[in-house]
Amino acid sequence: MESLETTTRIEGHNVLEGVYRADKAIAASDLKYAVSNGLQAFHTYKYGTDNPPRVATPAMKFGSMFHKAILEADDFANYYQLLDDKRSKRGKELALAFQTRGIETYTSTEFDTIASIRKSLEKDAFVSKYLINDIKGASEQSYWWTHKATGLQCKCRCDYVVDDMVIDLKTTGEGGSSPDAFTRTIVNFKYHLQSAHYLQGTGCKKFVFVAVEKVFPYTVAVYELSGSFIEKGYQLQEQTLQQIKQAQESGIWAGHSDQEPDGIKTLTPPKWI
Hints:
Layout: H1 17-22, H2 28-47, H3 58-71, E1 80-82, H4 89-100, E2 104-106, H5 108-123, H6 125-132, E3 138-146, E4 153-162, E5 165-172, H7 179-188, H8 191-202, E6 206-213, E7 220-224, H9 227-250
Helix pairs in contact: 2-8, 2-9, 8-9
């Protein structure tokens, strides 16, 4: 299993997000999808040719705008424009014109929220030093590599890389930045797999989460995972890549219950009941 000790720091690539997403190498999000939905669904999701377009939820749209405002503020206006009125004839015309140019719109309320979150981030000593006021690092860096054990092509796109550290910016709901709540979020959304995947791809030695709540008072917390937590991420990454490789070789992309003798999988009580 590849681990932190066997990787060396490599340089990222400054490419457009669309170029990165169009590449068919395997991202951490792909692995998380395979774990949650099974290989059959993963194969359709990743390699299907007639899939419907992926529609971003309001939360996803806000997250993307927030990342752009914090990590690439100088480029924000090229992707987002203020538009409070979308109901009048003029407002609808402007919205369509922006959409045609590939520009998203935001409201004054959304802008005020992001501005308040930024102020809260600036008050945190770590975030202020390594993210807000840093001039050495780089945002939105893309990496590609070959997974040694399987030969599969992998990729990752980091929010921010500085020195030997990856910084990942996460927004949460009220109370979501507490240690207990964010630990549950890590497990539920498999962020430990993401940490391992990114560390492997970048060769960095440290992966840090900056968790900030989207509601007043916009609480900020900074976390890193223990060695054993990251190791579990490596194990899950390795296991999932091996399963994908085996499916590629056999041509069998099994669903959750496909390989049971009668097509029915028996569920047993979890430990937490």
